[in-house]
Specification:
Shape: elongated
CATH architecture of the largest domain: Sandwich
Bound molecules: calcium ion
Strand content: 35-45%
Largest sheet: 6 strands, antiparallel
Distance between the termini: 60 Å
Structural class: mainly beta
Number of helices: 3
Number of domains: 4
CATH topology of the largest domain: Jelly Rolls
């Protein structure tokens, strides 16, 4: 502390005043130095140069941006001070301010001149993958006015920093234009390696945020585990809080789990689902006869109608338009599908939606509804209802038939109606819609949906 000598000359007011003013000037100077050191956050040790007053104050480094390249962070640092600085550390802090990693630049210390921008690369430790970090040039984070000794490394707490939150994760290819995705884990449970297997995925509010997808689900997409290779899919139904979606997975090894990705959140995406590419066979009766053969064995009535349907607005119908019955005497006939190959299947399932009404009688097999699987014109009955088997009237529902016995063969599906006789035929008849054949094993793969990810 400076010493102050007071001179007081009796009777000389003017001299006393001058001394007082000199004293005031000294006090102000000392205070200014203290305030200067305080505001410049000078807490480190002064170098010899600093003590000699040759070090410029206010040298500062600012993190201007961070981006990720693979498992490296590329940090852009601007020198907004007035002397060359050297960067030899980058700190990754938790949002709470805890130092998670102190990293040396991959290419060694980086010098940056005043007004210059340095590019500093650091490798992200594996344990920080997926975590939010604050990239900082100081262990404390935040923005501090600091002191930097020229030519030397940045001392602890001696760098100006700006914080920027980045999400670090391993390099992940991403479907361009999509905002979100979730991993979908599919586990094989039958002990057989599945090929080109259609997997049913049920979405509801417990595993999916419907507000983040387009209202009709048209921006839904599926990829393989590489995150980019698109998979065939089909949206069976889409509501406000629930949806049923099918996706065809190229291979699911026996008793193993594969991960695919479900993308959503792209306002520009249009629906690209296609059930014909997901299933072995799919016909919603909306494309005309579509290769089906119609055979009247006696007063046959099979045709496509718009009177009732499961998928809008057509179905196959055995009955008379306008009359809505099959009261034409004894009547029988069938429809026969185009050939369906079950090669490279692990099993097979036939499903169809149906509605019927026929007579009710406790004996005989009048008003018989039958489904056959045919191989080389040899047909075997796989499903049957008649006047005393099954309900007299059934609203739209799905029938499910395991036809795994035909794996490896080329089959045709036959739907046949036979009144047997001409009595009691004043009923509406039989409708068939949405006929599907697909690869199938039991138990079917288990599906779980993981947490939402962003690019
Ligand atoms: Ca239909
Ligand atoms: Ca009848």
């Amino acid at each position: 502390m400076a010493r102050v000598f007071l001179f007081r000359v009796p009777g000389s007011k003017g001299q006393a005043k001058i001394v007082t003013m000199l004293l005031l000037a000294v006090v102000v100077t000392v205070a200014a130095v203290i305030v200067y050191l305080w505001t410049s956050s000078f807490t480190g040790e002064l170098s010899q140069e600093a003590r000699e007053g040759t070090v410029s104050m206010g040298k500062m480094l600012k993190v201007e941006g961070v981006r990720q390249e693979g498992n490296s962070l590329v940090v852009y640092v601007r020198n907004i001070g007035d002397a060359t600085a050297t960067i030899d550390r980058v700190y990754l802090l938790s949002p709470g301010g805890t130092v998670l990693a102190s990293l040396e630049p991959q290419e060694g210390p980086v010098e940056v001149d005043p007004s210059g921008v340095a590019v500093v690369r650091v490798q992200v430790p594996d344990d920080l993958v997926g975590k939010e970090v604050i990239v900082s040039l100081s262990e404390q984070g935040g923005t501090t006015v600091c002191f930097k000794v020229q030519g030397a490394a940045i001392t602890t707490g001696a760098a100006s920093t700006t914080t920027k939150q980045v999400s670090t994760s391993p390099p992940k290819p991403w479907l361009k234009g999509w905002q979100y995705r979730r991993p979908v884990n599919v586990t094989e449970r039958s002990g057989v390696t599945l090929a080109n297997y259609p997997v049913r995925i049920v979405l509801d509010s417990s595993n999916f945020d419907f507000s983040k997808a387009k209202p009709n689900g048209s921006d839904l997409r599926f990829t393989t585990s590489d995150g980019e290779t698109l998979l065939s899919y089909w949206v069976e139904s889409w509501g406000e809080e629930s949806a049923i979606v099918w996706v065809k997975i190229p291979e699911i090894p026996a008793s193993s789990t594969v991960t695919i990705y479900m993308y959503y959140g792209n306002p520009n995406a249009k629906y690209e689902g296609d059930p014909k590419s997901v299933f072995t066979f799919y016909d919603d009766v909306e494309s005309g006869e579509n290769g089906w053969e119609i055979k009247s064995e006696r007063n046959g009535l099979w045709h496509i109608t718009t009177h009732r349907y499961h998928s809008p607005g057509h179905s196959w119908y055995y009955g008379r338009e306008g009359y809505w019955d099959y009261d034409v005497g004894t009547t029988r006939g069938y429809i026969l599908s185009p050939p369906i190959s079950l090669e490279n299947h692990q099993g097979a399932l036939l499903t169809f939606w149906t509605w019927w009404e026929h007579e009710k009688y406790p004996w005989g097999s009048f008003d018989s509804l039958d489904v056959y699987v045919c191989v080389n014109k040899k047909c075997k009955k796989v499903w049957h209802r008649d006047c005393n088997e099954g309900p007299q009237k059934a609203d739209w529902h799905q029938e499910v038939i395991d036809i795994s016995a035909y794996v490896g063969k080329t089959i045709r599906i036959k739907f046949r109606f036979d009144s047997i006789d001409s009595l009691y035929n004043d009923y509406e008849g039989w409708y068939v819609d949405d006929i599907v054949v697909r690869n199938y094993v039991t138990p079917e793969p288990n599906v779980t949906i993981g947490a939402e990810e962003t690019p």
